[in-house]
Design goal:
- The protein is of the alpha/beta class.
- Helices cover 42% and strands 10% of the residues.
Length: 357
Amino acid sequence: MDELIEDILETIGGYREEDVNWAFKGMSAERVKNWINQFDEEDREFLLNELKHILPKSYLSKEDTLETFGGEFEVLRKDFGYETVNDFLDETRFLDCQEELKSQKVLLGLIDEVLFEKYGYRIKDCGKKEIKNWLYIDDVLASGKTFKDDIIEEIQKYGNEEFKESRIRIIASFFILHTWAVVNVPYAIAQSVGVELEKEKRISFYRVSEIENNPRINAYNPSPKFNHVYPLKGQEGEEFLDFIEAAFDRQYPMGQEQFAFRDPNYPKEEKFYSSKENRIRYENILLNKGIEIIKSIDELRARGIRPLGMAPSSYKTLGTGSHFFTWRNISNTCPLVFWWGANDWQPLFPVKNRGNG
């Protein structure tokens, strides 16, 4: 097992290495060992083997991610018909919507360095000509609520009618993008401000990694990879859904229950986990341990808490199930076993600047 732990550290050893201090001593063999020992003994080696297979595809290192982001400006130049990246930057405003210590502020600082190194521009130098693009950068688009709220607020500050007439394009770029949110968010924005961004081809999404979690199987989504944690229907999952529905007084019915469990016919070909059978076992272990964590909480306060990660509070589902991680933080849409840090549970990826919800 020690060799497996060392193999995993080869991938995730740089997690939050810039934050190492007395409270967070960094990623280590001891941390991985303490985390895995919280699972049943017969599951430990299996989990480590599966993580060894999955993590190289789902952990975003700083170097690789910033290299991708640096190259993205050339893609944007080409996609939007500019002669040079500098021409694109001259007509682009970087949106800065979030509070200090939130992910967007940190990422804008990193992108500022990338721009200066590659193009000799700082973010403050951009948008000196007529603004034709709003560029929104963040680490994760999961439910899409933060992005939706930020864009609606920016449009309202600009003026709904003025924005309609401006033809300004919104370019949304994320480290990790969930496809279900991409489907839902433009509609929600249109409902709020009356601008059909998608229909008018005024919104574009870019990403380093994509989580194909849209559960609606149709002509537009015929064969999703489901490269996240999305278990089949089972007794434990069904009992938890009843439990979470009864845990809070609600002024509205819970929805999306038809998408709580994965269709056993998908993915058509397993390319994320090591095998179809191992996927089922892995997902059930994370689900059951997440349920155990939730039931150890004395008083539930977060309506969106789910064993497989935070979800919209109105969703009668098991969680978002994200299985992608960045070097700088972990999304609370990932399964609880990875980030929960209370009730005697030790996380593999301790959270930065966020409580347990």
